[in-house]
C-alpha cells in the first residue's frame, strides 16, 4: 500500500488510476487519510530525518514552488463595486416601475 500512496502523490493522477499491481485504490486512499489524521506520516518523516542525519549520507534540500493556482473560471471576472460593464445601462428600473410607466403614459409617481 505504501507504494500505491507514493505513486499517487508522485504522479498526481486520480486515485482510481493507481495501477492494479498496487492493490485497491480505496484501501490506499483510506490508509493515507488515516495515517495523515493520526500523525503516522509525521513520525515516519521524523524517524527518516534523524536516521539519515546520523548516517550523514543524505543532504536535505528544500525547493519552493512558485506556481500559481487560479480560482474557478467564474471567479476570475467578477465585477467590483462601483464598476459598470461597457454598454450596460447605468440604472435599471424595476419591472413594477416599468409597468406603471407604460400604463400611465408618463413617469411613475410614488
From TrEMBL:
Residue ranges for the region (Disordered) are: 74-110
Sequence ranges of Basic residues compositional bias: 87-103
- InterPro entries (alphabetical): IS402-like_dom, Transposase_6_like
UniProt superkingdom: Bacteria
Pfam families of this UniProt entry? DUF4096
Query: Could you tell me which residue ranges the Insertion element IS402-like domain spans?
Result: 1-44
Matching PANTHER family: BLL5188 PROTEIN, TIS1421-TRANSPOSASE PROTEIN A
The protein here is known as Insertion element IS402-like domain-containing protein
The scientific name of the source species is Cryptosporangium japonicum
Amino acid at each position: 500500500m505504501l507504494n500505491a500512496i507514493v505513486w499517487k502523490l508522485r504522479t498526481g493522477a486520480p486515485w482510481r488510476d493507481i495501477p492494479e499491481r498496487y492493490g485497491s485504490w480505496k484501501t490506499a486512499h483510506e490508509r493515507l487519510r488515516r495515517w495523515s489524521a493520526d500523525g503516522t506520516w509525521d513520525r515516519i518523516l521524523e524517524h527518516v530525518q534523524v536516521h539519515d542525519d546520523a548516517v550523514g549520507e543524505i543532504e536535505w534540500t528544500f525547493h519552493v514552488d512558485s506556481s500559481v493556482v487560479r480560482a474557478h473560471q467564474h471567479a476570475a471576472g467578477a465585477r467590483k463595486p462601483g464598476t459598470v460593464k461597457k454598454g450596460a445601462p447605468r440604472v435599471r428600473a424595476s419591472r413594477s416601475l416599468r409597468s406603471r410607466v407604460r400604463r400611465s403614459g408618463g413617469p411613475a409617481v410614488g
